[in-house]
Amino acid sequence: MGFTDAVRTCFxxxxxxxxxxxxxxxxxxxxxxxxASIVLGILSDRxxxxxxxxxxxxxxxxxxxxxxxxGRGGWAQLVGLxxxxxxxxxLVWLVRPGEPGPNRYGPEPS
Length: 110
Description:
Elements: H1 3-12, H2 23-43, H3 45-54, H4 56-69, H5 86-95
């Protein structure tokens, strides 16, 4: 999935926690959030904060769909709250390739 397609998909599925998301969809969304936050932070801290609040739910939703692609539930994101090591574990899960073929969360993302 391309950069613009990923951003469009994540805004379209704003709070859709069902289904699966490919690695490219998740990481292109993360890149969009990083770039937009930096640019808006240079312009205004308030704009950056407003953007972060506006994209929090889509970020959680796409991360949930990404974890579904690896065979884990969305609640696995809470492991990231464990001090020092939790965010590393979640990052490894998000980087791993998805399960081939359909799984209990739906068909393989295109």
